Structure formats: C-alpha cells, structure tokens
Amino acid sequence: MPIYDYHCQACGHPFEMLVRAGSTPACPSCGSTALQKCISSIAPAGKIEAIRMAHRRVAAAQGHFDHYSPSDKAKLLQGKKNI
Fold this sequence. Notes:
Blueprint: E1 3-8, E2 14-18, E3 35-38, H1 45-61, H2 70-81
Antiparallel strand pairs: 1-2, 1-3
C-alpha cells in the first residue's frame, strides 16, 4: 500500500495517507473526497548519505553488527576527508 500526499479542495487541508488499491480516500479534517493528489518531495541526495552515515555511527556505538572490516572503515573515513 503506497503513501500518497493529498490536498483537500474543500477545506485546503494537506495530508498524506496510506491508500489501498481501489479505495477512495477522504480528508481527515472535513471528510470530503474532493482531493488532489500531490507530488511528494524527496530528500536531497547529500542529506540521504548524511542520514545513512549517522545511523551507521549510532549502530556502531550501540555495538550492533557491522559488516565493514577495520580496513574498509579506514578507507571510507579517508574518502570523507578528501571531500
């Protein structure tokens, strides 16, 4: 079931909703089905990488499984310093 962004044409309320195939969503604010499907924005590429690396640091600090060897980690860190 995909999540879609909608804008209610009756009350102007923007919202996102998980929608099953074949079902008609309704505005959670006013109940209207006069909705406009909107294009969702995505995270900028640089932010995605930063978020991924932040999650890796937290996982490593908490002692979770890490599939990188110490030499691979050193290479990754070296590559970040050159940027």
